[in-house]
Specification:
about 325 residues; 4-stranded antiparallel β-sheet; 1 helix; 24 strands; about 5% helix; about 35% strand
């Protein structure tokens, strides 16, 4: 689209898998920092740009540009996005990719604030604080925005669900984390969007423990996550079965504890769904980081790889691709 805003930016884009020349993108071409959703379709001449999102009257309004706030379903020809278009509150919308049929999700039950959203099968899953102020919960709605119902488990007082929920492969299941509320631990849960069955995966966690980053193995059998579920402020690496059976498995040495405050900083799962590269700090050497290899099936296999005195992000970014291919699981 041709901008009238001289400092216009593209905040994000997704490409159609069936037509690599067709792209959906967020663009503040009219007013600075007021992003709108467009779709570019190629043609024999120069192609066309169609604005998909609704008009934004609110002076500080915008389509939320973070990647988990908008989704394009190329198969069903719809976009799902969040926008504070008429007030400070965010609402979720669906719209056809030709700009028609714009529908506010959950309008009939007075959605007050919508965060992340995604398509799961025939449903839209979104995060909103519909009935408990400042406590975001997961809901599902039909593709046309109707029939919004809550699907996440009841939250503890002062808890909320984080926006980094993910779909489990191409299944109807969603993995999510709720923060630790009053008298409870942070919970890692999986919910079936169709049946509504919701299962706690990190059973037995200490009060006030947190779940940090997590990733699903490519065979969809396990979720691997960082958590201080045993010792406060000691982040360890754990794995839980996605079907909810069994108990969480510790993937680092069991002698870690309050007297040896190691911390797992990051990890990468190999495409074999079993081998994991782990980055943690060295308790005995200040400002140095230790890499190990462990396996879900044999957690006692804890192999030292290297020491590195550079920063966490730089050393890990250089190390992980050298060990595993680009098909490794994404950590959330």
């Amino acid at each position: 689209a041709s901008p009238s805003n001289n400092t216009a930016d593209i905040a994000g884009f997704v490409i159609s898998p069936s037509n690599p020349a067709k792209v959906a993108y967020l663009f503040d071409g009219v007013t600075d920092n007021k992003y709108e959703l467009y779709v570019y379709t190629p043609s024999s001449s120069s192609g066309t740009n169609v604005k998909v999102s609704n008009e934004i009257a609110y002076s500080a309004g915008s389509v939320e540009w973070a990647s988990n706030y908008w989704t394009v379903d190329w198969v069903n020809n719809i976009a799902i996005y969040s926008a504070n278009d008429s007030s400070p509150y965010k609402y979720a919308y669906t719209a056809k990719l030709d700009g028609s049929s714009k529908v506010k999700i959950g309008e009939q039950i007075n959605v007050s604030d919508v965060d992340a959203s995604m398509v799961v099968g025939d449903n839209i899953v979104f995060l909103a604080d519909l009935d408990r102020g400042n406590q975001s919960e997961l809901y599902k709605a039909n593709a046309d925005g109707s029939g919004a119902v809550k699907i996440s488990a009841e939250l503890a007082e002062n808890a909320t669900i984080l926006p980094n929920f993910i779909r489990v492969g191409n299944t109807n299941k969603v993995l999510y984390v709720s923060t630790s509320g009053t008298g409870k631990a942070s919970e890692l849960r999986i919910v079936d969007v169709v049946t509504g069955v919701d299962t706690l995966l990190n059973t037995g966690s200490q009060l006030n423990s947190e779940v940090d980053s997590f990733a699903i193995t490519m065979n969809l059998n396990y979720v691997v996550y960082i958590s201080d579920r045993v010792y406060d402020e000691v982040n360890e690496l754990w794995a839980s079965k996605l079907d909810g059976t069994g108990t969480p498995v510790r993937l680092n040495p069991s002698n870690w504890g309050s007297t040896s405050p190691y911390d797992v900083a990051a990890f990468t799962i190999a495409p074999d769904s079993n081998t994991i590269a782990v980055l943690h700090d060295s308790w005995t050497i200040d400002n140095k980081w230790v890499y190990h290899i462990t396996k879900i099936g044999t957690p006692s296999t804890w192999v030292n790889v290297t020491y590195n005195s550079s920063t966490t992000s730089a050393s890990y970014a250089a190390f992980a691709p050298a060990v595993f291919s680009a098909n490794s699981a994404t950590v959330c």
